[in-house]
Amino acid sequence: MPCYTNGSEQVSRSVSSFDPDEGRARPRRKQYSKCRQGRSTENYPKSKQGNLDSYENGNSCISEIPEKSKKPAFSTLVHLCSVRDRSCAELNDRLLKDGYSPAEVQAAIDRATECGLVDDARFADCFVRTKVAAGKGRVWIQRELSVKHGFDVECLEGWPSEYGLSECDQLESAISFLQTHPPRAKDLYASAYRKLAQRGYSASVAREAARSWMKDSGIWD
Q1: pLDDT for res 220
Q2: What's the distance, CA 163 to chain centroid?
């Protein structure tokens, strides 16, 4: 025979089986990463362990890059001289600028001088001949050697005549320069004088050369 239940039993069963959260999205439990739970770093390589330690201490995880080892001062000097000949004063200023101590610089220059790699007299001789060929005047050449290279041109054997820097040689060179590079200003004499003075010719040579050039050009009667 079928079994019938009364209404009160059906209601009680319905109430007992009712779930108020049915159909609602349940919040997910927070998933904490293992690294926040104090994961051991014993099995990490040393480089990674260092980065983790830096992170825990509040520092950057990027490890510091070691400073590049610097060449000995003499090795740098040799490289500089392989490009072109240099004076002691020029090498001194360059090596100090590169961060070498005065003692290291002096030791390197002394060694280079002893072995003949650096020779101020040889440098000055080459410097003077090169600048004379470029049309530079004696005043400019003397000033450059003295100020930048700490060299006294009077120490050069045969200075100045053997280098084509006597008064007569300078006058001839100055006139030749004006012939190939004539001034274009309205005041030709002043412009010619200024051109020669800027190239390092003495005042007396510049005046005489400007007058001679203007006479030869038919400008100065």
Answers
A1: 67
A2: 35
Give the span between the Cα atoms of 213 and 202, in whole angstroms: 16
pLDDT for residue 219 = 74
- DSSP sequence for 10-65: HHHHHHHT--TTTTSPPPPPP---GGGGT---TTS-HHHHHHHHHHHTTS-SSPPP
pTM of the predicted protein model: 0.63
What pLDDT is attached to residue 55?
43
Q: At what angle do helices 138-149 and 120-133 cross, to 10 degrees?
A: 150
pLDDT at 217: 79
Q: Above 50 in pLDDT, residue 20?
A: no
Average pLDDT, stretch 165-177?
A: 94
From residue 149, give the alpha-carbon distance in Å to each of 13, 95, 101, 146.
110, 14, 20, 6
Distance CA(113)–CA(134), nearest Å, equals: 29
Distance CA 6, CA 93 (A): 112
Contact 124, 153 (CB under 8 A): yes
Q: How far apart are the first and last CA of the chain?
A: 154
